[in-house]
Specification:
By secondary structure, the chain is an alpha/beta fold. Helix content is 30%, strand content 23%. The model is unreliable at 1-10 and 12-37 (pLDDT under 50). The structure holds nicotinamide-adenine-dinucleotide (NAD).
Length: 466
């Protein structure tokens, strides 16, 4: 079934339509029957004029995220605003491929410190393995650079404190690329909450479903080992926790969590090192032929000899030590209580969320990939206590993450000083708070006790985010 699914450059970005086509999904969906009160197109507008001279940027970590979202897409949409002055990776083969794929002629480096000295970037973009982000963030700031880092900011509280200290010492800027905030339907939720549309929010039900394709991909490589990813409580859920912090406009105070590994890893009778050459190909639902994708083959397979990085590793690897089902109770400094869960082997992908307020309820069931007909818009249901129910529709945006990736590029590279009425830009404190919920959840799930956010770093949770 999964065997022939075509992959985009980033396998996580398999589109909904592609999923329906490739799985032969049955068309059964129908729209909700409630009246539609609002419907808006959120198509990405033409790019705004870039402010000032081109910024000198360098990137460390030329994996798929580095070469696509922070490479080729930057060159395609923002080449008038930025100039690549250096690329760095420990894998020289991947580095050479990246240079051609992105389409730049800047110098390449396998030594990050050398790149800082010789390329003299103004801004460093960090897209390496999660557990290594801190070393590049700190070194870049010490060298006088601003930093744009992929999420998660880092993977544990000690590294987080080191980043906070370095930021204080140097006064440099850190942007954490919490691109989920920029998706149109999430921005609409933020606006409705800011408008007080359901009164004061008192609790949230938030449940995320990763499907058997995207979810499984986290277990094929470094993400499946806690020492690299911090578990999916950090690597993946930091997106979700950042959304909560942003929507609720408050800091997390306490986390109590559970997690277990019950599907991937050792939970199967057979296994191999990787999908290529696996004797169990025919009987494994998770068999994935990486060589069907030319970009991934040239980026990873062709460069295995340099560092032994296997991109199509076995999801049944007994060394996998992260949770594949997770649940957390989060208490916020403003009193809001959140029930969160994440499942990594669901038949479809998306999330359900409900904000319970003193005057009503705001809820959504956002489908990101499903084996039934795709609706043309996302829908938010608003229901007043003792009153009416209504649906707000938001058309799907063009581009990655519903157009969120393009909006994020524009804010970073073209109009960094533009007004930000929905507070979508995420700084280091936001990045830290998102990670600290994940760290607290991981500690709680391992230790069985609630964990106070204030016990982790020097950051003090505030009822209203500073
Ligand atoms: N915001 C999002 O939606 C999103 C989506 C995908 C990935 N990401 C993030 O992007 C980052 C990269 O993800 P990816 O899928 O491209 O991973 P990847 O493993 O494909 O790429 C990581 C690259 O970093 C390099 N690297 C590792 N250690 C290094 C070191 N010490 N020095 C220099 N280079 C080093 C590796 O060789 C590799 O090329 C991760 O932090 C991930 O969490 C974010």
């Amino acid at each position: 079934m999964a065997k022939d699914i075509p992959r985009t450059d980033d396998p996580h970005e398999l589109s909904r339509r592609q999923f329906i086509r490739t799985t032969g999904g049955v068309v059964t969906g129908s729209l909700l029957a409630a009246p539609v009160v609002s419907s808006a197109s959120e198509r990405v507008p033409p790019p705004p004029q870039a402010q000032g001279p081109r910024k000198r940027i360098a990137l460390v970590g030329t994996g798929i995220r580095g070469i696509s979202m922070w490479g080729r897409e930057v060159m395609a949409g923002s080449a008038d605003a930025v100039e690549y002055v250096g690329l760095c990776d420990i894998n020289p083969g991947r580095l050479a491929f990246a240079k051609g794929h992105i389409g730049v002629d800047c110098p390449t480096f396998t030594d990050f410190d050398r790149m800082l000295v010789e390329a003299r970037p103004e801004t460093v973009i960090v897209t390496t393995v999660d557990a290594t982000h801190d070393q590049f963030i700190v070194a870049a700031m010490e060298a006088g650079c601003d930093v744009i880092t992929e999420k998660p900011l880092t993977t544990d509280e000690v590294k987080c404190q080191a980043i906070l200290d370095a930021q204080q010492r140097t006064g440099r800027d850190i942007v954490v690329t919490h691109n989920y905030r920029y998706a149109p339907h999430r921005a609409r939720m933020k606006q409705l909450l800011m408008d007080g549309r359901i009164g004061r929010v008192t609790s949230v039900d938030f449940h995320w479903y990763l499907d058997v394709y995207h979810g499984a991909d986290y277990f094929r490589r470094w993400h499946g080992k806690e020492r690299f990813s911090g578990t999916l409580f950090v690597h993946k859920a930091c997106h979700h926790f950042d959304l909560l912090n942003w929507w609720l406009d408050s800091d997390p105070a306490q986390v109590y969590a559970n997690g277990a590994l019950e599907y991937y890893g050792s939970n199967n009778d057979f296994r191999h090192t990787q999908c290529r050459g696996c004797p169990h190909q025919d009987g494994c639902e998770h068999y994935w032929d990486i060589t069907a994708n030319e970009t991934l083959t040239r980026l990873y397979v062709d460069n295995e000899q340099h560092d032994g990085y296997i991109r199509d590793g076995c999801v049944w690897d007994e060394a996998i030590d992260i949770f594949d089902k997770m649940g957390a109770q989060i208490r916020y400094a403003n009193g809001v209580q959140v029930s969160y869960s994440c499942t990594t082997y669901s038949p479809y992908e998306g999330y359900r969320i409900a904000f319970n307020g003193t005057e009503g309820r705001l809820e959504a069931w956002i489908k990101e990939r499903q084996p039934w007909e795709e609706a043309p818009a996302d829908e938010i249901r608003l229901t007043d206590n003792f009153g009416q129910t209504e649906i707000v529709r938001i058309e799907h945006g063009d581009g990655g993450h519903g157009g969120g990736d393009i909006r994020l590029h524009d804010r970073l590279f073209r109009t960094p000083d533009a007004p930000d009425p929905l507070q979508q830009a995420a700084g280091f404190r936001d990045g830290a708070m998102a990670v600290l919920i994940g760290v607290a959840a991981r500690q709680s799930a391992r230790g069985g006790q609630p964990v106070e956010i204030a016990s982790l770093t020097s950051l003090t949770p505030e009822a209203v985010r500073p």
